[in-house]
Amino acid sequence: DLGKQFIEREGKQFDLRPGMQVVSEIRLGTRTVMDYLLSPIQRTV
After folding, report:
1. Cα(32)–Cα(45) distance, rounded to whole angstroms?
2. How many structural domains does the chain have?
3. How far apart are CA 39 and CA 20, in angstroms?
4. pLDDT in tens, 4-45
5. CB distance 13 to 6 below 8 Å
6. 19 occurs within a structural domain
7. 1 within a domain of the structure (yes/no)
8. Looking at the DSSP assignment, which residues form a beta bridge with residue 7?
9. Assign residue 13 a region: left if phi > 0, alpha if psi is -120 to 50, beta otherwise?
10. Residue from 12, 14, 16, 19 nearest 3 by CA
11. What string of H, E and C letters represents the secondary structure of the chain?
12. Domain that holds residue 26
């Protein structure tokens, strides 16, 4: 929710303020590196 002025992580609340630097990670899926490497083989089987 972009309307919140805080983020919550592991039960702790952290205030967000203008000018703060943020590092974020966006998770798009749950495939492992092995899944990516083996997918061409799995499609042909």
Report:
1. 20
2. 1
3. 41
4. 888 888 999 999 888 999 888 787 888 888 888 898 888 887
5. yes
6. yes
7. no
8. 14
9. beta
10. 16
11. CCCCCEEEECCEEEECCCCCCCCCCCCCCCCCHHHHHHHHHHHHC
12. 6-44
